[in-house]
Design a protein that fits this description.
- The chain is α/β, with parallel strands linked by helices.
- The protein is 36% helix and 17% strand.
- The protein is built from 15 helices and 13 strands.
- Helix 2 (35-44) packs parallel to helix 3 (61-71) and helix 8 (262-281) packs antiparallel against helix 14 (405-415).
- It starts with a strand and ends in a 5-residue tail after the last helix.
């Protein structure tokens, strides 16, 4: 087959036979078990065929089908699932949505044949692929779409170099791009690839700044910083190749545990401070410290991700008009001033409170205007010594904060009675909730 297609698979099965059955050089197969990620994929990518497991927990089938048909006219939807789901699926098919239902269990040959039929039907469909106003190239090459409004073909991009990387799973989608698990064919290793949204780097000046920052980030080598292996482009698609980690973000850890023990919190802060101190010494400021960018591996390592993307982040916020309370953003960032190490220290102070309390130190209705007008985080629930440390870390003016991130970490550990941890900044993290210890800093 000379034309390439993008196939999205929403599959509830922990180990899917579908991905292996469908892989081919002319296909980009995106696999996920999350309805939320499937929704993101359907709104940001042009999908040719969607294999949808109707038994996936919490799936809003009607909503996702409507999104799919609006975002990718001509998309072929193949429903899969248990025989008990036949009534639900038949209702969708009768209403003109989808091309068929494949009942589980089925063989790899069955799914391969049905999807091949869907691909053939997709290319023979007179409905133009993509949203109204979007064209595809003459080869039918897979296309990523990242806007809610019609774009010209020049604003689209193909995926990473297929000769070098095979995308195997959709990991997440954010304001600046889409992250995939991939296999480096040359080195035969798993990597994470972030495909940058074309809208974000359409401005040549933004692209140049991002290249400069990515170049700096690639030079960082620290045990608590995720390695960036490469920043490259292929057919106008820009992407970052990174170290792939197994584990979960600090955000998910906090959600699961509600709040963390003093010792666990101090260990995480110390590991982050060690990484940030190294970065600051190399004239690199993270600028986007938040629990989503702190990763705890299955082995208990702390890794900071997304270094070197300050310009990219700012451009993304400008494009998407983000509103609400920017919980970790320092006042100088809100004022669009030049940020430095105190900016990262501010964010780490807020993250520390969040880990210990499971909530933010602001009223729920706090606005950007409130923060610009001097509303400060409330640490009054803590003992005076701890409140003073966090208050200095998050002072309104950068000059009043700690100027060295390790100084902040050491004073925090001191008032929390965890000074002995400073002797080993590389120790692995054991996640312990505050409920398990019954010991709170209040």
């Amino acid at each position: 087959m000379s034309k390439s297609v993008t196939i999205l698979v929403l599959d509830s099965q922990p180990v899917s036979i579908i991905k292996k059955s469908l892989d081919a050089s002319d296909r980009l197969v995106v696999l996920t078990s999350s309805p939320e990620l499937a929704r993101h994929a359907l709104t940001t990518m042009i999908i040719s065929v969607w294999v949808c497991d109707v038994s996936t927990p919490e799936v809003d089938l009607k909503s996702l089908v409507a999104i799919a048909e609006n975002a990718s006219p001509g998309i072929k939807i193949l429903f899969i699932g248990p025989k008990l789901a036949a009534m639900k699926v038949n209702a969708m098919l009768t209403a003109g949505h989808g091309v068929g239902f494949l009942v589980r269990p089925f063989s790899p040959i069955d799914i391969k044949k049905r999807v091949s039929d869907c691909v053939a039907a997709y290319f023979s469909d007179p409905v133009k692929r993509g949203k109204t106003g979007i064209t595809t190239d003459s080869s039918g090459k897979r296309v990523l779409h990242v806007s809610n409004k019609p774009e010209s073909h020049e604003a689209s991009a193909s995926g990473p170099d297929p000769e070098h990387y095979t995308l195997t799973e959709l990991l997440g989608i954010g304001g600046t791009g889409t992250v995939f698990l991939a296999r480096d064919k040359f080195l035969d290793i798993e990597v994470a690839i972030k495909v940058i949204s074309p809208d974000v780097i359409a401005d040549p000046d933004i692209l140049k700044s991002f290249k400069d920052e990515a170049r700096i980030a690639m030079q960082l080598s620290h045990r608590n910083i995720v390695r960036i292996y490469n920043f490259s482009s292929y057919n106008d698609c820009y992407y970052i190749v990174m170290e792939f980690l197994r584990g979960q973000t600090l955000r998910d850890v906090i959600i699961e545990n509600e709040s963390l023990s003093i010792t666990t919190t101090c260990r995480i802060v110390l590991a982050c401070a060690d990484a940030l101190e190294y970065a600051h010494a190399n004239n690199v400021t993270h600028n986007d410290m938040k629990p989503e960018n702190i990763f705890i591996t299955e082995a208990g390592e702390v890794k900071i991700i997304d270094f070197g993307t300050a310009t990219l982040k700012n451009k993304a916020k400008e494009l998407s008009h983000i509103i609400g309370t920017p919980e970790y953003i320092s006042p100088e960032q809100l004022r669009c001033e030049i940020a430095g190490p105190p900016t990262d220290i501010y964010a780490l102070g807020i993250i520390t409170y969040l880990m210990l309390m499971g909530r933010f130190p602001f009223l729920i209705d706090t606005t950007v205007e409130d923060l610009l007008n001097g509303v400060r985080p409330d640490f009054s629930a803590f003992p005076e010594s701890l409140a003073a440390v966090l208050g200095r870390a998050t002072a309104y003016e950068p000059s009043f904060r700690y100027q060295d991130v390790m100084e902040f970490a050491q004073e925090l550990l001191s008032v929390c009675g965890c000074t002995e941890l400073c002797a080993n900044t590389s120790s692995l993290i054991e996640i312990v909730s505050s409920a398990a210890t019954q010991k709170q800093p209040i």
